[in-house]
């Protein structure tokens, strides 16, 4: 029996809590990528394995992660590398942005996302 990869039942409540408590940068980005505004569907706070990613586009196998201040210490960076390695081992592309990128350079962020969507894998 293969193990379920997406949205495992044990994380359902936590995913819901995260969706209902988005950070301000997550809210801003979500308003610009939701409802197929970039031509593809994104999901927010999507479970992949034991992890919950900020945004996921199943059609393009694209994970978008937003990093706040807590991501700037050694332990968290090591954890993020482990998560990213897992995502890549599942054939997923991961792109990361800082909260400051969203707040100050949103158009550049959207361009990177758009380019990632357009690039054939």
Strand-residue proportion: 15-25%
Mean pLDDT: 89
Shape: globular
Query: Percent range for helical residues?
Result: 40-55%
**What top-tier CATH class fits best?**
Alpha Beta
CATH fold-level assignment: Endonuclease, Chain A
Number of contiguous helices:
5
* H/E series: HHEEEHEHH
N/C terminus separation: 28 Å
The structure class reads alpha+beta
Description:
The chain is α+β, with helices and mostly antiparallel strands. The protein has one domain (9-118): Endonuclease, Chain A (3-Layer(aba) Sandwich). Helix content is 44%, strand content 21%. The protein contains five helices and four strands; from the N terminus they run ααβββαβαα. The chain has helices spanning 12-19, 24-33, 74-89, 99-104, 106-118, and strands at residues 43-48, 51-57, 62-67, 93-98. Strands 1-2-3-4 form a four-stranded mixed sheet, sandwiched between helices. The longest helix is centred in the last third of the chain and has 16 residues, at 74-89. The chain is globular and about 35 Å long.
Layout of secondary structure:
Blueprint: H1 12-19, H2 24-33, E1 43-48, E2 51-57, E3 62-67, H3 74-89, E4 93-98, H4 99-104, H5 106-118
Parallel strand pairs: 3-4
Antiparallel strand pairs: 1-2, 2-3
Overview in brief:
It holds the Pfam family DUF559. The protein is an alpha+beta fold and 121 residues long.
Keywords:
121 residues, alpha+beta, Endonuclease, Chain A, 4-stranded mixed beta sheet, globular
């Amino acid at each position: 029996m293969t193990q379920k990869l997406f949205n495992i039942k044990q994380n359902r409540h936590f995913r819901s809590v995260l969706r209902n408590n988005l950070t301000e940068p997550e809210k801003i980005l979500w308003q610009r990528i939701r409802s197929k505004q970039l031509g593809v569907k994104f999901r927010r706070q999507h479970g992949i394995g034991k992890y919950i990613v900020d945004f996921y586009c199943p059609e393009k196998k694209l994970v978008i992660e937003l990093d706040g201040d807590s991501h700037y210490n050694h332990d968290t960076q090591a954890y993020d590398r482990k998560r990213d390695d897992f995502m890549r081992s599942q054939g997923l592309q991961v792109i990361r942005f800082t909260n400051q990128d969203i707040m100050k350079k949103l158009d550049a962020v959207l361009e990177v996302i758009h380019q990632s969507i357009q690039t054939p894998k």
